[in-house]
Structures are given as C-alpha cells and as structure tokens.
Design goal:
This protein is α+β, with helices and mostly antiparallel strands. It is 43% helix and 20% strand. The protein contains 15 helices and 11 strands. The strands form 2 sheets. Strands 1-2-6-3-5-4 form a 6-stranded mixed beta sheet, sandwiched between helices. Helix 9 crosses helix 15.
C-alpha cells in the first residue's frame, strides 16, 4: 500500500491510496453540508447534491448516469452535516471518463427549471419516506433531541423549507458554497496520481468565498410519538460523545464494541438472548469535525421500553467491572472489522475523506495504534454517563 497527498495551487487537496487491482474509486467532496445551514435554508446542501445530477451544459441526466454505467461503474453522492461528496467506482482504464463527469457536474450544472421542480417533488417524497419509516425517523428525532435548531433539524430539510426553494436562489447559493479550494479529492485504486493532479489544476479555478457555520448547541430532551398501524416500538438512546479530534473518541469505539455492537455484545446478550425483548440491537457513532454523538437502537415492544431503558443504564454502570481480557477482545474486534472493511475501496475512500476533513488523512492509518492505546480507565470513565436523550416511536 502506498499513500500520497498533495495540495494543488488551486487549493484542492488530492490524496491517493494506490492498489494493484485495476479498479478505482474516486470522490470529490466539498466542505459544505447541513451544519452550515440556517433554519431558513435547511436542506439546501442535500437539494444541491440532487440537482447537479439533473444535467449540465453538455450532458443530460441520462447521459451523466449512462456514461458511468455503460462502463460497468457506479455513480453516487452523499450529503452529511460537514460536507457533500460525489463519487464513482470504475475499472481503472475509464478513470478519466468518470472524472470528466464529476468535473462537468460541479463546473457546469444548468439547474434547468423543469428539472428543478421535478427534483423538488422527488425530495419531498424522500422526506415523506423517511418520516413514514419509523426505524429511520427515530434517528432523526434523537438528533433533534440532542441538538437545538438549526443543527437539530437534520440534513434533508423539511417539507416547509424545501417547498420554498426556487431555482434562482439555489443556483446562486451553489455558486456561493462550492469552491475548489474547499474540495478534497480522494482516490483509492490503480491510477496515475500525477495525471490526476494535472487534470484537476487545469479544470478547476478557485473562487473567493467564505461560509459561516451557525453555532451548534447541545441539549437533552426526550420524546415519544404514538403511531397507528405499526406493531413494533422503535427506541433510541443517545448521548453526546467526544469529538473525532479528542483522544476519547477511540475509547468510545471500544466501549461500543463491548456494549452494543455485535451478537456477543453485552446488550445483545442481555436484551435479546437472555430476556428475548428485541430482535435488533445496534450501537453507532455519528461523528464529523464539528459534532459527535453516540446512539443505541432497540426494536422492541411498547410495554418493554421501561425494562429496556433500565438494562441499558445498568450495562453502562456495569462497565466498571470491565476486565482487561474483555477490553483486549473488544479492541481485537475493532481492528479486525477495520481490516475487513478496508477490502472495499469505497469504504477506504470515504474514511480517508472524513479523516482529512477532521484532522488529516494519515490518521486513518493510525487507527490500529490508537485503538491499542485505549486504556481500561478511558473506557470506564466514558461509561459514567450523567445525561442522555431518548426518542421513541411506538404503536398507538
């Protein structure tokens, strides 16, 4: 494995992990996401992500997707709180065909009026889809319960905010927030690094822009929503967590591996295997540069919610009994999972991009060392929770 990184004259950060397989995954990420939005424009980063796929000055929507797919590739995008990214995975000989597509999408989107209105309707249906899926919507609620507006209003926006967007406003907003000097280009696979850097220098011109981020304010609150027509209660326990720049973020990974991740975790064994109270139990961390929180999801019955919550709190308290052997087993699980995940180039592309956003991409390769350095005292101290939020969607 060979890793290299360079900051170009136009400000773009380019990095590559070389691989011998003739496959390449490449992303262009812009440091603008939902955390930069006020309540009035909540959802605009996600809207822009959709719109750049709808056509450019030289390509239709159909041509954009077809030029990737006819070569056996995958084309997609994502919007998070801290960034928006566009990526493809292709056989290496078609790399520059894929790069031409992303470059055209970011440099020459037309924001066609007819396509704009169609995509607005698509996103409004997407908002309904997430709301109507209680397992997804409960995660939107826990974020809302952990953070005040505008951060707590989520990434996708609301029917109210998305409905008010018009073509001219969004097109001008795109020009304001998309700046090559804020781009991170990540390549994983077999590719000519020098040629890619030359291409990016030639095709992207920097602009003078600045984006202010509204203050992110934490809060603690609890909600329960009753819904007709569902049989399962969806419950999320959430707490604020160490930022990715803080040492204890690695201790949180270890704590999660021990407590709520996998069929051998404490909560899985207690809630599902011993008590038979749930089918699905899953811990997860949501972390970027400017925020971090930890959640535990349980799918259970409405009547079991008090007992499930009680068990979660008891198992956090019982972490004080964590043994050195259990600590080492949790670390080994994390190290092994990272190795398995790294087989997929898209995963590594994503992890490197987020690492560069937070601190520097090289931190990705320090993961095993950082996990091994976590002490038993770190994990035990993190488990001493003082406050938490909950969100539940239950049968009416």
């Amino acid at each position: 494995m060979k890793f290299q990184k360079r900051i170009l004259k136009n400000g773009i950060t380019v990095m590559q992990e070389s691989r011998d397989l003739p496959i390449v995954s490449l992303s262009i990420a812009n440091k603008f996401g939902a955390a930069y939005e006020t309540s009035y424009v909540k959802g605009i980063a996600h809207f822009i992500e959709h719109l750049v796929f709808t056509g450019t000055k030289t390509r239709t929507h159909e041509q954009i997707s077809a030029e990737i797919e006819k070569r056996g590739g995958i084309l997609n995008a994502f919007t998070t709180h801290d960034m928006t990214g566009f990526w493809f995975k292709l056989p290496s000989e078609h790399l520059f065909s894929g790069l031409d597509i992303l470059t055209d999408m970011l440099n020459n989107p037309t924001f066609n009026q007819e396509k704009f209105e169609k995509e607005k309707r698509v996103i409004l249906e997407e908002i309904k889809m997430y709301h109507d899926n209680p397992q997804k919507h409960v995660f939107e609620k826990i974020e809302e319960n952990l953070y005040k507006k505008p951060f707590g209003e989520g990434v996708i926006g609301s029917e109210k905010t998305v409905s008010r967007f018009n073509r001219e406003f969004v097109a001008n907003y795109f020009k304001k927030v998309y700046n090559p000097s804020n781009y991170i280009v990540t390549i994983v696979g077999s590719a000519d690094f020098e040629k890619i850097c030359e291409y990016l220098e030639e095709n992207f011109k920097p602009k003078k822009t600045s984006i202010l981020m509204p203050k992110i304010t934490k809060q603690i609150s609890h909600t329960m929503e009753e819904r007709p027509g569902i049989d399962q209660a969806h419950f999320v326990f959430g707490m604020h967590a160490p930022l990715a720049t803080e040492k204890l973020c690695y201790a949180l990974e270890v704590l999660d591996a021990y407590l709520a991740n996998g069929m051998s975790s404490r909560l899985f064994l207690k809630i599902r295997e011993e008590k038979g109270l749930a089918y699905n139990i899953k811990g997860s961390t949501s972390t970027e540069k400017n925020y971090s929180y930890y959640t535990i999801y349980i799918g259970t019955t409405k009547s079991a919610l008090p007992e499930v919550k009680k068990i979660i709190l008891e198992e956090f308290a019982n972490v004080k009994n964590l043994t050195q052997k259990q600590l080492e087993e949790s670390k080994e699980r994390l190290i092994g999972l990272r190795k398995i995940s790294s087989e997929e180039s898209i995963n590594v592309m994503s992890e490197l991009t987020f690492a560069e956003l937070v601190t520097k991409a090289e931190e990705y390769y320090e993961h095993e060392k950082k996990i091994k350095s976590v002490s038993i005292e770190d994990v035990k101290s993190l488990a001493q929770i003082k406050e938490y939020s909950t969100a539940a969607i239950v049968p009416k």
